[in-house]
Sequence to fold (640 residues):
Amino acid sequence: RTRRRGGEAAMRVVVGIKRVIDYAAKIRVKPDGSGVDTANVKMSMNPFCEIAVEEAVRLKEKGLAKEVIAVSMGPQASQDTIRTALAMGADRGVHVLTDAKLQPLSIAKLFKSIVQREDPKIVLLGKQAIDDDCNQTGQMLAAIMDWSQGTFASQVAVADCQERVSVTREVDGGLETLSLKLPAVITTDLRLNEPRYATLPNIMKAKKKKIEKLTPEELGVDVSSQIEVLSVREPQARVGGKVLESVDELVDKLKNEAGVL
Amino acid sequence: AGAGAERRSGKELTKVGSSGGEMWSRTLLKSLRGARQSSQQSGERSLGTLCIVEAKDGAGGLDSASKATLACAQKHLPKPFVALVASDAKGASEAAAGEIASLAGVETVLHGVSDKEGANGLLAEPLSQVVAALVGKLEPTHVVTGSNTFGKNLLPRVAALLDSAPITDVVQVVDESTFVRPIYAGNALSTVKFVGKGPLLLSVRTTAFGSEALETAQGAGAEVASVGAEEVAAGAAAEALSEWVGEEKSESERPQLDAARVVVSGGRALKSKENFEMLEKLADQLGGALGASRAAVDAGMCSNDLQVGQTGKVVAPELYLAIGISGAIQHLAGMKDSKTIVAINKDPEAPIFKVADYGLVGDLFKIIPELAEKLPSQK
Fold:
């Protein structure tokens, strides 16, 4: 079980990752208003999840974690995202295979089942997915596990005793530091780290790493939604304005046309 | 007015004893019990809405997220509403409670969840348990808070405790179970309907409700009371999970970024912290707040709380000046609802010009001093 001798890597770390439309891709709303078009669009690992994987791998490199398990939930293609995490340094993967549209509460419940199986001391998640922009899953998982939570982390430092972790968070007023009792759920913010690129040798090595396949039924989780999406539409487009010739013209427009001065 | 950083360490502040004791007024308890008995007969929830607002020490009144929360409850959600004030200081929570008590539609204002100093009273682990206990007692149909870092940290935790899927970052209330929220960095708007058994938990975007003026009550204000001992006790066990250690926040006399009428925002092209400070003079001249793109913050030109964007602050001022900002989708997500947008950039192809009302193509190091010279001083 956990060893407190200095330098002895003790904990297991679970990282959650999500496959989303690439951050640079143009978003197209389907004409029938049923959702956003994902056909033929580049998909990538959610940027915040990349940061979470990176942080987990660094914990291993520091000798604080003995194993990093990358977990993703979704259709068959989520496997690709898990492979990327493995190429970044995660040890093995877990894929909860489902075509159901998952909402954060269901995902948190799926994570709970996995956490109970894997017994990690830290669960690292991205603070939000850039598709639904929910920013809920980490907090929910912490609630149902009755664990501490360190959200929007810009710095994570596990204490020597490995019983606590110090998390600095980016909040509205600046930065806030909390000391959390382990086990904890930590959600990553932009400046926590800069994720590594998977190198070709590591991509090859990752092909040999194991990915366990599970289903929500096997985990005993009901993934039905309490929220129905009625429609998705584009926001009202902002009409572009004019490029002016001089500062004088700008000041004049702001005063007399826009009326903001 | 310069910006400096202030560090506070939790260890230097002493704990004030928690305000225990049953403080519900007898008449209030009786009326709530009565309401609940009849509602239990009909199977419906007895209270309208529970609002959760945050009062910070030294904030000088309710912040814009709290006002947006209360405005949404007042104008769009079932009445009456009960407001719960969470705070990092006893004085701040009492002052905020007093302010809220004068609003129309409020039945009771509760405060005193924790008298612990140094933001321990705002920690999600104990506070979520207190809120969940309060929900169990009051049985509201709706629970609402602001979509700022306080609300984002707290609400989903409460929701999971209640096994109710929350709807976060709401920009429009269609009806009491149907809401609009932005997705894909605001490139799409999703209309969603809550079909769970409730309560319905939601967080609201400040810029969507902040401009709705709060109505004051006719006649006497609402009852102000301390949160009951039972509810406070519900949070006791969770206090062991986390501890507030300290903070680093910018001290500034400029207006709050999410409530300012004018925002002067800088990007990567400013190149250095010293150059970024050039914008401070412009902001002061216009009586505005400072903002920044992610690139500027990443480069260390300014602190993180200035970041405007998909994962930073969302603002909608009367005037937004985007200086040396290219206009990536993620930045636009945070400012495209501004009334007037001005872009200053040396690249005529920069995407920011597509959303700007007025643009100037040129060297910002020449334009900004000229602008500062020619702008009338606004204070």
In short: Residues 1-7 of chain A have pLDDT under 50 and may be disordered. DSSP finds seven helices and 13 strands in chain A.
